[in-house]
Amino acid sequence: MQTRPMRSPTIEAWQWQVAASCRGMPSAFFFHPWGERGPERIERVRQAKDVCAGCPVIDECRRHALQAREMYGVWGGLSEDERLILLGLHRRHRTPGPDSTEPDGSGAGSVQPVDHVDELTKR
Ligand code: SF4
Fold first, then answer.
1. Does the first or last residue of the chain, that is N or C, have fewer Cβ atoms within 10 Å of its Cβ?
2. Residue 75: strand, helix, or coil
3. Dihedral through CA 43, CA 49, CA 51, CA 54, nearest 10?
4. Nearest atom of ligand 1 to the alpha carbon of 23
């Protein structure tokens, strides 16, 4: 059996992180602790977004988060829910499809891979 060497991430792919405004900040600033809800969560997300708003690599960060489908945290000035909505994956924003497999008709079975991340990240 022939094997191929594993691909390693290139430095260029992550170079943008060097200039990140959040570099060195505690991750708890951007990622919610277990069970965080309500006003505390809203305020933490707002503060994280304030940091992102002045970040010189916000576009690169947002593109990465959408392409990688980062599930948690604030990335590129977008919350978890905002990224799901942009990707068409948020439960409340799905349209039922003919192949929906969820009893509530939320269309889980019709979710398609997203191939338009560049379009989503244009500002
Ligand atoms: S956009 Fe926000 S999360 Fe992304 S690198 Fe900048 S400060 Fe960090």
1. N
2. strand
3. -150
4. 8
DSSP string, 94-118: ----TT--STT---GGG------HH
Residue 78 near ligand 1, beta carbon < 6 Å: no
Nearest CA to 120 among 74, 62, 68?
Answer: 62
pLDDT digits (tens, 9 = 90+) for 6-54: 666 677 778 999 999 999 999 999 999 999 999 999 999 999 999 999 9
pTM: 0.72
H/E segment holding residue 23 = none
DSSP state of 2: -
Q: Cα–Cα distance between 37 and 99 in angstroms, integer?
A: 33
Q: Which two tokens stand for residue 8?
A: 């390693």
